[in-house]
Amino acid sequence: xxxxxxxxxxxxxxGGRREARGERPCAYGLQCLTVSVNRYSSTxxxxxxxxxxxxxxxxxxxxxxxARVRVAVAAGELGPGDALPSVRALARELRINPATVVQAxxxxxxxxxxxxxxxxxxxxxxxxxxxxxxxxxxxxxKLVRKLLQDAARLGISAEEIAxxxxxxxxxxxxx
Amino acid sequence: xxNAIELxxxxxxxxxxxxxxxxxxxxxxxxxxGFLGPNGSGKTTxxxxxxxxxxxxxxxxxxxxxxxxxxxxxxxxxxxYVPERxxxxxxxxxxxxxxxxxxxxxxxxxxxAEELRKRLDLDPGQKIARLSKGETxxxxxxxxxxxxxxxxxxxxxxxxxxxxxxRDVLAAALDYVSDTGATVFISSHLMxxxxxxxxxxxxxxxxxxxxxxPMQLFKNGIKRxxxxxxxxxxxxxxxxxxxxxxxxxxxxxxxxxxxxxxxxMRHYFDSVGATLRDVIDLxxxxxxxxxxxxxxxxxxxSR
Lengths: 175, 303
Description:
By secondary structure, chain A is mostly helical. Chain A contains seven helices and two strands, in the order αααααββαα. In chain B, the strands form three sheets. Chain B has a six-stranded mixed β-sheet, with helices on both faces. Chain B has a four-stranded antiparallel β-sheet with strand order 2-1-4-5, with helices on one face. The longest helix of chain B is centred in the middle third of the chain and has 18 residues, at 163-180. Chain B starts with a strand and ends in an 8-residue tail after the last helix.
């Protein structure tokens, strides 16, 4: 589960992503779509942005997709003007309903994260720094809640978690 | 037109005792509708009824807003159908079969058929009899798609296909839906596949539709609850309790499987003096199994 919330963002992968951004849609490895468009089986979006989307999760797929984009924007992996994959390409890659992708993109547009230019594609907006910070905080909260919930199921207290956290990171969260 | 397929109070019975009873089914236009049910629950019979291959004893059947079987000819011109068992001629080659099939459809898209043939890697000179199962599956989908249907009906389209072919077949179908907004009705046992692509779910059991609702509601509505100190006969429950089991070991712990759950309903347990310890999410397969377990009358000896 931990693997599919990429809240941190400043890890090793993010650096490579940033470098790739100079060439625009590359952020998803989408260039290979145009190269190998004549064979279904070889169309892969290698990008980490949508990796591990989990249809079995109770979180609706459109929310998962939208969350991935928000996280990538907050982490700087996606910047202003970057193109999201087309509805068709993403639906095919994730093997999901195109309507699900449309809904995710619409929600992102309502939140001001992307702009849908009809007939052209969906592009990342210039998201203000404080919105990106809020998003990072929201993701951190989500991670911690999930951790505490899982811990409660195992009968592990918040104090025990805090001690392990301190030992792992050197950052103490207890008085 | 709100529904691409509509069955209302349909009854049908076979000699050997199998029957569909008061079957009502609504497939919203533009949806990707997953049709689930155990073997022998009546899925293929239902499909055969709305495809006009057998006639209902009673009830109303409409496809693409036209009555079945009265308007079957014009309906079939707009429905792409991949049947459970292939209906192609072993003696023909792939190319011949495509040409033969195309002659039945006015909207047949020859250019696209050719493009699909290349993408799906089918050799036009290959004899049908010598196709592998995967190639046959791809050819059937090609035939269904190239007629540019408003409704695509897939009966176990990927059953027995290897994962690579399954992806190719689904990708081709999804591409078509992206471009056209066509409705897809898909019957399958492969839950994880349906969980990805479907936005509606219909569940059949014993010749009846036991649930029909948006995928998200279906999945999120059925939960496993861990409850303590629950009264034996609690009143005013805001959700449906499908089953209730005592947990092993000491104490008053119970596991409830419930339907129609919403997060705000946690408060209910306080009001009856019980404790809700945990709410556990179920995936499509688990939800499906729990639903069927509860929709069946208890038989002695089970559990």
